Amino acid sequence: MNPDAETCASSSTHANMNRHKKSTPEPRPSTQSVRTTEPVHFSTEDMESNIHEVQLRYKLSSVTMKALCSISQAPDRRQVLYKSCLASEFRSFPLKQAEKNLFREINDHTAIPYTIKEAITQPWHKVFLLIQIDLLRTGWPNKISGAARKELYQERGRIYALLDRTLRCLTDILGLRRDGRGVNVVLDVLRSVKSGVWEGAGQELLLVDGIGSVKMEKLYRSGIKSIHQLAQTDFCNIERLMSRNPPFGHNLLQQLAGFPKLCCQFDIIKDYALVDRFPRGDHQHDQPEMSQSPLWVCRVVLAYENDQVPLWNKNNPWVTLVMEGGDGRLVWFWRGSVNKLAEHKQLILGLELKRGEKIGLRGIYSHTSDGHKICSKRLRDRDEIVLRLIQANVNHFRCIKTGGEG
């Protein structure tokens, strides 16, 4: 992956959401260069062509693509994980006799959120349950022999690599549909898989080297529940709470200094707040209803508050910005290296939004998971756009913050 590449897509261009792998750096936009979000209505032939392009990009079978394309609008986490595990490529990881007791135990006697009601026999059952038990961070039940456990560990890496491809493919498919909510849910699952903990499960501290479940509980009892809270704690208190000797506290704070702290500013360019999209007489019949919505010319400025370029798990993370309309449609998508935010990253966007519509603005830093509030912006005529920006934990896509003062 080219670390200098970035992806920028509107509702008309998210068919190319993953072109960052081959694209060249894009010039920074100015107020004279405004990207607009033209409505997209693909014909059946165009959609099939775009889906085929996505299939070639991720090198998945037609059977897998059929399963992924059958996903409903705005799917939940369970459906995203289930559909991804149906990929025919997972048939190369059959459920072995020596593994059956382990996966029955995982399904029947652990706290995984999504269980299977039928007999555990299929390859997708194995993948579906393996991912969930790993995300619990409780370890595998002791229902498998040492040799079978070792063999399963060897398969595990290939299973995760394939799941990464299917989830990214599913993101592109939902992007083609302009399903903003679906894209965000898939990115939630992908972020969870990459970080090793479920998003929102209250286990963020387990992402820090040297912190296990016991130490996390100690920190919880002291009111420290996030990485940002831990980073603001005095090193002496850290050593006292975790029963460790110096220089553990100093070393831990050094590590946490690289944890990404995203900030975002969203403005309406007042001189161009409303623009007539099309003369109604010429386009009244051949333009979709959405084209009559006002065009808001907006400026989004992304930056980080770290003293140096964020570094987490020995990597400079990527950041993804997803804008979701009030009805769940995908309004805008951008992805680029965190190095692009060294001073700041400014995006000038032309967004078709209804008056009073609330949009979710989500951005994600790879490898991070935390949330906090920042400003909301009140528009003219008292119309309001609410921003959501929650810093998240991903290896691939997206970092989020939320809006609304309070």
UniProtKB/TrEMBL annotation:
<dbReference type="GO" id="GO:0051321">
    <property type="term" value="P:meiotic cell cycle"/>
</dbReference>
<dbReference type="Pfam" id="PF02889">
    <property type="entry name" value="Sec63"/>
</dbReference>
<protein>
    <recommendedName>
        <fullName>SEC63 domain-containing protein</fullName>
    </recommendedName>
</protein>
<dbReference type="InterPro" id="IPR004179">
    <property type="entry name" value="Sec63-dom"/>
</dbReference>
<dbReference type="GO" id="GO:0016787">
    <property type="term" value="F:hydrolase activity"/>
</dbReference>
<dbReference type="InterPro" id="IPR052247">
    <property type="entry name" value="Meiotic_Crossover_Helicase"/>
</dbReference>
<feature type="region of interest" description="Disordered">
    <location>
        <begin position="1"/>
        <end position="44"/>
    </location>
</feature>
<feature type="domain" description="SEC63">
    <location>
        <begin position="48"/>
        <end position="349"/>
    </location>
</feature>
<dbReference type="GO" id="GO:0043138">
    <property type="term" value="F:3'-5' DNA helicase activity"/>
</dbReference>
